[in-house]
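$ ./design --mode recover --in tokens.txt
reading tokens...
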């Protein structure tokens, strides 16, 4: 038995165009069965053709390969099969090597090896090592995603914002559990005609933008967000004008807002290393509107507008509809407006547990405003920690009615660069409580506090003098204000001063005594019912010892020379 080895070129016809999912692209083998009759070659009709894998052997051969009726590779053809009356035969099979036996009517059974080369316009599986030489040219590849990271610039859209939304839609279709939309290839200034909608229908999505990108959006709001959305431009621990910016130039448009405000509470939005700006000098809307938004974090973010009366950050909840605005955090956020502009942080109905850590509020009409519409819809639990407040036109804090437990810890309040008013408090019906300043660095004169008896200032020193503990936290229907304007520069206007009684008991009093010959004393504005408990320390030289004594009307201090001594007294049993 003679074994013939030959490699047959494809005589017809590699399939063209796209191949449907699940199909196997195949090449065609055409040949003729021949035999040597008395020294001449003749075709052999009806020969049995058996197609085997590259490792096949035997006559007829085994093991059988899978062959197809056409190039789509969808319908399996019979194997073995017979040649026609003229000895012609053919089959379709995927690229590869095939061992074929010709038996039956063939006088001398034989075998042939065929090679079907790879298809140049189909999908091919490669194995083993391949060596290439010379110059190879490849067309431009379009890669829209790597796993669950989708590249927005590779999608179709009228503008970059539309492309970002298209990438988000494709991500959610392929990965309903969420992923990443990479929008870092839109460097430079971009314009968008419609809202950049970042709502992922609850799926967590990280939208990445790049420093050097800006998006000027002609829509209201310019950007909207949904649940579990992150918008990140830079992971550096600073606020920078080079961070990606989202802007609008329309006075009445908001830059950032929930996509679902007034229909549900939106949770867990995170913005980091980006800028939100309204460039219109007559701004009337809030730049960042946290209506019905809870559990957000803004980190290293700049929020600003060019003027007008619009708020920089507005927080509010439609409580009557069952929505809330709790637990929102501003971490190293810079607020920049103009002195004629609106409020830096405007906290309204049920905007509770609002925290601002670091950052600054600069050039606003009022840095902080907190007010509720009723006892039910109050503002409660607001903290500013190490925040710098600079250049305001009106009061630093406008509170009430229905505002409770607003605290400032550390930080800097530079009234020398702006308005001189520290507090403007509306205490209608005694619905303001617990406004506390703890160790702030207050620069300049703070001259006015309306209904300031509800304000507490702890450990503040101006000109080396102790501001002390001011007023009482629960005015119980009346306005109380302790003012020692000669020492601390706070003038409580419109209310009685030195009203240090609460339930007929003296309240806390404090001040600074300048010693003369190592001694000094102070007479209390009101008589204590019993000798108060007092402490004091030398603020001129901390190491110098101080001795104090007190009775119901007076505190006496002995120390060193003409040193200044800070003191504070509380009723016995309340320290």
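writing sequence...
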């Amino acid at each position: 038995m003679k074994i013939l080895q030959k490699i047959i070129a494809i005589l017809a016809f590699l399939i063209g165009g796209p191949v449907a999912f699940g199909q196997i692209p195949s090449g065609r083998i055409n040949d003729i069965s021949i035999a040597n009759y008395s020294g001449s070659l003749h075709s052999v009709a009806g020969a049995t053709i058996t197609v085997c894998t590259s490792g096949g052997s035997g006559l007829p051969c085994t093991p059988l390969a899978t062959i197809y009726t056409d190039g789509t590779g969808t319908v399996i053809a019979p194997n073995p099969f017979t040649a026609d009356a003229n000895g012609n035969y053919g089959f379709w099979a995927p690229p590869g090597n095939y061992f074929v036996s010709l038996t039956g009517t063939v006088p001398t059974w034989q075998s042939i090896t065929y090679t079907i080369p790879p298809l140049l316009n189909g999908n091919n599986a490669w194995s083993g090592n391949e060596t290439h030489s010379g110059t190879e040219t490849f067309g431009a590849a379009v890669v829209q995603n790597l796993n669950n990271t989708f590249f927005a610039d590779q999608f179709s859209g009228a503008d970059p914002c539309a492309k970002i939304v298209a990438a988000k839609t494709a991500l959610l279709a392929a990965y309903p559990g969420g992923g990443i939309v990479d929008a870092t290839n839109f460097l430079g200034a971009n314009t968008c005609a419609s809202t950049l909608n970042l709502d992922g229908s609850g799926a967590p999505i990280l939208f990445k933008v790049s420093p050097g990108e800006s998006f000027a959006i002609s829509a209201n709001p310019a950007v909207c967000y949904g649940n579990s959305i992150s918008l990140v431009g830079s992971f550096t621990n600073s606020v920078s004008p080079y961070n990606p910016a989202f802007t609008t130039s329309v006075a009445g448009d908001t830059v950032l807002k929930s996509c679902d405000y007034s229909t549900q509470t939106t949770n867990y939005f995170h913005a980091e290393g980006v800028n939100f700006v309204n460039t219109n000098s007559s701004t009337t809307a809030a730049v960042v509107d946290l209506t019905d938004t809870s559990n957000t974090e803004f980190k290293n973010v700049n929020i600003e507008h060019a003027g007008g009366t619009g708020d920089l950050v507005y927080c509010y909840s439609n409580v009557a509809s069952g929505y809330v605005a709790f637990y929102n955090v501003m971490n190293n956020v810079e607020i920049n407006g103009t002195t004629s502009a609106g409020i830096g942080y405007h906290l309204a109905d049920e905007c509770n547990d609002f925290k601002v850590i670091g950052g600054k509020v600069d050039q606003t009409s009022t840095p902080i405003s907190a007010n509720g519409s009723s006892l039910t819809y109050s503002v409660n639990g607001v903290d500013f920690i190490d925040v710098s407040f600079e250049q305001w036109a009106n009061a630093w804090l406008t509170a009430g009615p229905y505002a409770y437990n607003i605290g400032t810890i550390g930080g800097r309040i530079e009234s020398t660069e702006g308005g001189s008013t520290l507090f403007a408090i509306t205490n209608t019906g005694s619905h303001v409580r617990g406004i506390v300043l703890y160790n702030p660095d207050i620069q300049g004169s703070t001259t006015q506090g309306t209904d300031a008896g509800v304000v507490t200032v702890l450990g503040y020193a101006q000109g080396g003098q102790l501001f002390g503990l001011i007023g009482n936290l629960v005015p119980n229907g009346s306005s109380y204000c302790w003012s020692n304007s000669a020492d601390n520069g706070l003038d409580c206007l419109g209310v009685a001063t030195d009203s240090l009684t609460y339930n007929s008991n003296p309240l806390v009093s404090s001040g600074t005594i300048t010693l003369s010959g190592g001694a000094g004393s102070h007479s209390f504005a009101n008589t204590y019912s019993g000798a108060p408990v007092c402490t004091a320390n030398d603020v001129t030289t901390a190491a110098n010892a101080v001795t104090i004594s007190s009775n119901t009307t007076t505190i006496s201090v002995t120390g060193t020379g003409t040193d200044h001594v800070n003191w504070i007294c509380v009723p016995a049993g309340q320290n």
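exit 0
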